[in-house]
Amino acid sequence: LPTMSKGASRTGEQAWAKVPKVNGEFFALTYGAMVTQLVRDFEDVDEVNKQLEKMGYNIGIRLIDEFLAKSGINGACQNHREVADVIAKVAFKMFLGVVADVTNWNAEKNSFCLVLYENPLTEFVELPTEMTGLVYSNIICGTIRGALEMLQIRAECRFIRDTLKGDEVNEIQVNIIEVMEEQMGDDYNDNS
Amino acid sequence: TMQASTANSNRVAESLNHLFILEVVSTITRNTLTDGPENEAEALEVNTKLESLGNEVGYRFIERAAQNRLIPTEPLEAIKFICKDLWQDIFGKAVDKLQTNHRGVFVLKDFAFKWISRHSSKSDIGIKKSQAKLLRFPCGVLRGSLANLGFTAIVTADVESNDSGQITSFHIRLA
Questions:
Q1: Cβ atoms B15, A19 nearer than 8 A
Q2: Cβ A34–B27 below 8 Å, yes or no?
Q3: Three-class SS of residue B102?
Q4: Largest CB tally within 10 Å, which of A46, A49, A133, A141?
Q5: Does A48 have pLDDT greater than 60?
């Protein structure tokens, strides 16, 4: 299992080295301006969170094509653990330039967490005290959900720890609800 | 050159940034429209919001991009700085051609502007409208960056098609 993770890390680094890249600060500033616009447009912070998640979803369903084309991943994932490693070590790396750690598997092995030590979105951000309900980086959750859906994996993602709220790290919980097994290889094993 | 840092956490994939910008345009459009097809007032509101978003980002970005660098105060030099350094930072390439009448009007031409598809049909009205809308954001970025350098500008953009692809032009008029 550590070998699998190392393989994914190397794949991620190679993909990141090859993809065209742009300035991360500009991206972060644009994201911040967008969040501010949403906060202005919607009084309810929960609605802003939903908007961010939806934006992420719309990005994820398209980003997956780029991922499949450029990641260097050749076959389908064989199980949930591989899906998690690929998200954490390949996808995060090749798009955001940072890797996540996979932790906290549940007993059924259909739920895990992604721990992010660095979040390119939040470089200059401080949440005002009246906005503690805002899930600033919710776009990431939506992106994961959208991308997985294109791979016939229905999942829910949510932030359970957030550095903007004083936590030490960012942690996203991913719950895999359903896999359309006919679409995956016969070898796909939900519970390994 | 321009890039202050090459640390991984200071860059993101261009593909992600592009999809994100498209989604910003989409979301602002969706949230501005009331029922039914887009009317002229709504189109104007969307364009204004996108330009305004760009203005804010441009203003703040050049602040950081300009740290540790000597910023030109003369108009032509300031525009050149934007064409080379700022454009390189944001789009990974410099502007391809700069024209001026030396009386406050500048035209920046990009032969492969990242956010405009190279394969759009010349005659597709829908695509032309989307492009015009999307371009309000980088127009705002230019206006905001110039503002932080002390220049008041009006910025517009258009896309021309020729045999080799699309030429995106940004027209800057300094006050």
A1: yes
A2: yes
A3: coil
A4: A141
A5: yes
Give contacts of A51 with chain B, Cβ < 8 Å: 27, 31
pLDDT tens over chain B, length 175 residues: 333 333 445 899 999 999 999 999 999 999 998 877 778 899 999 999 999 999 999 999 998 877 777 778 899 999 999 999 899 888 888 999 999 998 999 999 999 898 887 655 556 777 888 889 999 999 999 999 999 999 999 999 999 988 888 899 999 999 9
Contacts of B35 (CB under 8 A, 6+ apart): none
C-alpha B10/C-alpha B104 separation (Å) is 34
Residue of A nearest to B54 (CA): A30
Q: Does B57 touch chain A (CB under 8 A)?
A: yes
Q: Which residue from A75, A67, A63 is spatially nearest to A7, judged by alpha carbons?
A: A75
Buried b / exposed e across B135-171, counting CB within 10 Å, b at 16+?
bbbbbbbbbbbbebbebebebebebeeeeebbbbbbb
CB–CB of B13/A94 below 8 Å?
A: yes
**Tell me, what DSSP letter sits at residue A20?**
-
Q: What is the pLDDT of residue B3?
A: 37
Provide the residue type at A25 as one letter: E
Task: ipTM value, please give it.
Answer: 0.91
Residue of A22, A55, A70 lying closest to B91 (CB–CB): A22
Q: Does A97 contact B8 at a Cβ distance shorter than 8 Å?
A: yes
Candidates B6, B63, B146; CA nearest to A124 is B63
The amino acid at residue A77 is: C
Q: Give the C-alpha distances (Å, rounded to integers) separating A183 from A180, A188, A192.
A: 6, 10, 18
Torsion, Cα of A82, A140, A142, A37 (10° steps) = -170
Question: How far apart (Å, rounded) are the C-alpha atoms in residues B136 and B96?
Answer: 20
Q: A13 to chain B: nearest residue by CA?
A: B8
For residues A49 and A44, what is the distance between their CA atoms, to the nearest angstrom? 9
